[in-house]
């Protein structure tokens, strides 16, 4: 699933233009491989802040057992890595040392991991009869450095295993997710690589949270939210403005109304990932009742504007959510 597309960019500087082309190439490969997968969510060009520090991630892939940070590198000639792990770029007969993109990606991943741990209670549910809070402590954070198709990597055994050509990245992602899924299976004895496992609904909520925290770099235009994910800002003291009412509202089918009423991808059954759900109210508040497996999932809307959790309210068959920041958006509509 693609939760955040790569925004179109125009650069006059040749290096920045080449860098964007490498990101665009990688985004294309990721979209082709994972656009229809619910258990792998892709966010391109993600920039988030925590306590004044910034993580700028070219491509982030979230899966049920962790995250994968992909750093795109534009290489039009050759790069090399020596026995000390030092990187160099070779171009027009000149050699110039460059910062290790592997270490750079690890730093970005560490900051994202810490940010998620700050909000574990908001993003993850509980286990052991609802008494123990799940956490991100054992979440796996892997990194991949994607070299553009036209580049050449020299160094033989000194090249880190994290460095791949861009077209090889999807296969590596599948390899990692299969490995962690096997480690977390019931019959696995691999305790080192097991422990963290998010449900499909939690995974989608994490993606929505990070997308809501995205802060465009200075000079970049903020990407517009999809129509179904647009939210209204905090109400002013003067009261809400009266929207203009169209002379004749279009008649929508129940499927069309449902598609428009679903602003986030986190409305899904945590047991079977079905979106055939209805919002119900029970002892612990609003929850999603699955029409396929009968399972229950806590209703945890996340604001697409500020990343804060939303509180659900009901009006007939329609449910809205409002966050502490004052944003209100359509959350779900139960079938008539």
In short:
Pfam families: NERD. The protein has 336 residues and is of the alpha+beta class.
Structure description:
- The protein starts with a strand and ends with a strand.
- It is built from 6 helices and 18 strands.
- It is globular.
- Strand 8 (126-127) and strand 9 form a beta hairpin.
- It has 336 residues and is α+β, with helices and mostly antiparallel strands.
- The strands form 5 sheets. It has a 6-stranded mixed β-sheet with strand order 1-2-3-4-10-12, with helices on both faces. A 4-stranded mixed β-sheet has the order 7-6-5-11, with no helix packed on it. Strands 13-14-15 form a 3-stranded antiparallel β-sheet, with no helix packed on it.
- The chain folds into 2 domains: 2-212, no CATH class; 228-237 and 244-333, no CATH class.
Percentage beta strand: 25-35%
The major pleated sheet works out as: 6 strands, mixed
Overall morphology: globular
Distance between the termini: 29 Å
Reading the helices and strands in chain order gives: EHEEEEEEHHEEEEEHHHEEEEEE
* Quantity of strands, as a count: 18
* Computed Rg: 22 Å
Q: Runs with pLDDT <50, length 5+?
A: 221-264
- The mean pLDDT is 81
* Main structural class: alpha+beta
Helix content: 10-25%
Strand arrangement, largest sheet?
1-2-3-4-10-12
Task: Compute the number of structural domains.
Answer: 2
Main features:
NERD, alpha+beta, Nuclease-related domain-containing protein, 6 helices, 6-stranded mixed β-sheet, 336 residues, 29% strand, 2 domains
